[in-house]
Design brief:
single chain; alpha+beta; Rossmann fold; 2 domains; 8 helices; 28 strands
Length: 471
C-alpha cells in the first residue's frame, strides 16, 4: 500500500522553479522499502525520460522523493512504484501557485453577477478547504467541508453553513484567470486560507505552534501539503482591526511581522505579496472613520516599508451589503491584483504598479489656499466621470473646505475656500489643515487614470503650517 502525504495529488498544480520546470518534494507512506520509481505520461504517452526513473527512496514505512524537471504545462499522469506497491496520480499541471489569505472579502461573500458569472478555466485550479484540488470557481472557501479545526472553532464549534447558491464570490478565481492570461497561459493554482471576521492578532505567526488550530498554522499546513513551494500571496484583510481601537495603530507592525514570518517559513525571503486596500463600509458611524482611514493609509504605505509588496485600491468597487464587495467588483479586484502582481514580479514591461503619490505642494492662487497633488505610475492623464470628487481638506474648525478639484495631467489641483489669512477666533485655521482622499467610511471617489485605475485612499497628510508631508 502506498499513500502520498504531501507534494502530489490528483488535479493539482505544482509550483515551477526559475527555469520553468517542476521541483516538487513528495512524502508518503509505503509497506515496501527500496527505490521510488516514477513514470510520467502526457496525453497517454510516456513522457521523455520519465520511464521508471528513480526519484527517491522508501525506508521504514515512509518515502521521500523529488519530482524535478517536468516542464511548465501538462497535464501529466504520474505513476509511482515501490517494490510491488504502485500509485497513480492524474491530471497534474506545472505552473504558479498562490496563497490566498485574509478575511471575508477574500473568503468570498459577493453575489454572483447575473450576466457575467465567471466561467471555470481547466488550467486554473484550487485547493479547496476540504483539501481537494478542483477547477477554481467560486466559492473557493467551502467552509462547510473545511479540514482545519481553526475554521470550525471560529464558527462556534461547528462547520459553517453552506452558502446560498447566489453568494460566495471572492477575488481568487478572477486573479488566477488573469494571471493565466498575463503569464502566457501558465497554469495557476490557488490555496484557499482566508476566514471572515479575522484580525491580525488572530493571524499572529506566534500561534503556529497550535498547528491547524490557528490561522497561521493552518496556512502553513496547507503550504507543506502542496510540497512547500508557492509563487506568492494575495491578501484582503483589515476591517476587523478597525473595530478594536487599540489594534488600529498596531496594524503596520503586525503586517511586517506576518510577512517576515511567512517569508521565513516559506524559505522565500522576497516572496511577492499583493494586498487590497480595504474599501468602503456603510452605516459604520462617525467614530469609526478615523480608524478606518488609518488602516487604509497604513496599507497604502506598506509598499514603502515591506520590499516586494504592492497594494491595490478598492474604493471604486461597490459593496453588496454594509461591508462586502459585490461579485462584479470582486472580479475587478482579482484582475487588479493580478496586474499589480505581474508588475511587482516582472517590472514595468508587464504592467504599471498601482497609482501612488509623488508629491504634495501648497500654493496660493488668487488669494486662496490651493493644494497640488502629483501622482506617479499613471497610465494616461487623470480623469473622472463627471465632476472630480474624493479630496477633502479637514481643519480643526471644518471638514467642508474644498471649492473645486481640477485634473491637470498628472496633477490634481484642490482649490479651497480659505484665504491666506483665513482665521476663526483669532486662530489661523490653515495651520491645522490635513488632506484626505476618500475621507470617512463611505466616500464618493471617482478619479482614475486613463486606463480606469483608481487613485488610492490616503490621508491624513499634513498640509498646514509648519510643514507639508509628501508621503
Amino acid at each position: 500500500m502506498m499513500k502520498i502525504v504531501s507534494g502530489l495529488f490528483d488535479h493539482m498544480v505544482l509550483q515551477r522553479n526559475g527555469t520553468n520546470v517542476s521541483e516538487a518534494c513528495l512524502e508518503g507512506l509505503s509497506t515496501h522499502n527500496g527505490p521510488v520509481l516514477v513514470t510520467v505520461r502526457k496525453k497517454g504517452k510516456p513522457f521523455a525520460a520519465w520511464r521508471e526513473t528513480k526519484i527517491g527512496q522508501a525506508k521504514n514505512g515512509r518515502f521521500t522523493a523529488g519530482l524535478k524537471g517536468l516542464p511548465t504545462g501538462g497535464p501529466y499522469d504520474i505513476e509511482l512504484l515501490i517494490g510491488k506497491d504502485s500509485l497513480s496520480v492524474r491530471d497534474v499541471l506545472v505552473g504558479d501557485v498562490w496563497l490566498l489569505g485574509g478575511q471575508s472579502n477574500m473568503q468570498g461573500y459577493g453575489h454572483f453577477p447575473i450576466k457575467e458569472k465567471l466561467p471555470a478555466n481547466s488550467q486554473v485550479r484550487a485547493l479547496f478547504m476540504d483539501d481537494v484540488w478542483r477547477e477554481a470557481k467560486d466559492p473557493l472557501h467551502n467552509m462547510w467541508k473545511c479540514v482545519d479545526q481553526v475554521h470550525i472553532a471560529l464558527s462556534g464549534g461547528t462547520h459553517p453553513l453552506k452558502h446560498p447558491s447566489w453568494r460566495g464570490v471572492g477575488p481568487g478565481p478572477a486573479f488566477g484567470q488573469e494571471m493565466f492570461r498575463l503569464s502566457g497561459q501558465t497554469p495557476q493554482g490557488l490555496i484557499a486560507c482566508a476566514h471572515g471576521g479575522t484580525s491580525m492578532s488572530q493571524w499572529d505567526p506566534e500561534l503556529k505552534k497550535a498547528g491547524s488550530q490557528s490561522l497561521y498554522g493552518a496556512l502553513l499546513r496547507r503550504f507543506h501539503k502542496i510540497g512547500g513551494k508557492v509563487a506568492g500571496l494575495i491578501w484582503y484583510q483589515g476591517c476587523s482591526d478597525v473595530s478594536d481601537a487599540e489594534a488600529t495603530p498596531l496594524y503596520t507592525r503586525r503586517m511586517k511581522q506576518f510577512i517576515a514570518a511567512l517569508r521565513r517559513d516559506c524559505g522565500a525571503p522576497r516572496l511577492p505579496v499583493a494586498i487590497v486596500q480595504i474599501s468602503r463600509v456603510i452605516r459604520a458611524g462617525q467614530e469609526m472613520a478615523p480608524r478606518w482611514n488609518s488602516i487604509q493609509d497604513q496599507q497604502r504605505r506598506l509598499s514603502d516599508l515591506i520590499p516586494n509588496l504592492t497594494c491595490v485600491p478598492s474604493i471604486d468597487v461597490p459593496p453588496v451589503d454594509g461591508i462586502h464587495v459585490g461579485g462584479h467588483g470582486q472580479n475587478i479586484l482579482g484582475r487588479r491584483l493580478a496586474r499589480a502582481m505581474m508588475a511587482l514580479k516582472k517590472g514595468r514591461r508587464f504592467g504599471f504598479p498601482p497609482i501612488s503619490i509623488k508629491q504634495v505642494t501648497l500654493g496660493v492662487v488668487r488669494d486662496a489656499r490651493t493644494v497640488f497633488v502629483e501622482f506617479a505610475h499613471l497610465q494616461g492623464p487623470l480623469c473622472s466621470s463627471g465632476r472630480p470628487s474624493g479630496f477633502q481638506v479637514v481643519t480643526s474648525k471644518s471638514e467642508d473646505n474644498v471649492c473645486d478639484i481640477v485634473l491637470d495631467g498628472k496633477r490634481a489641483i484642490i482649490r479651497t475656500a480659505m484665504g491666506v489669512d483665513a482665521s476663526k477666533d483669532g486662530v489661523l485655521e490653515w495651520e491645522s489643515a490635513v488632506l484626505h482622499y476618500g475621507y470617512g467610511t463611505n466616500p464618493y471617489c471617482n478619479i482614475t487614470d486613463g486606463e480606469g485605475r483608481p487613485v488610492p485612499v490616503f490621508g491624513p497628510i499634513r498640509i498646514g503650517l509648519p510643514k507639508i508631508s509628501i508621503r
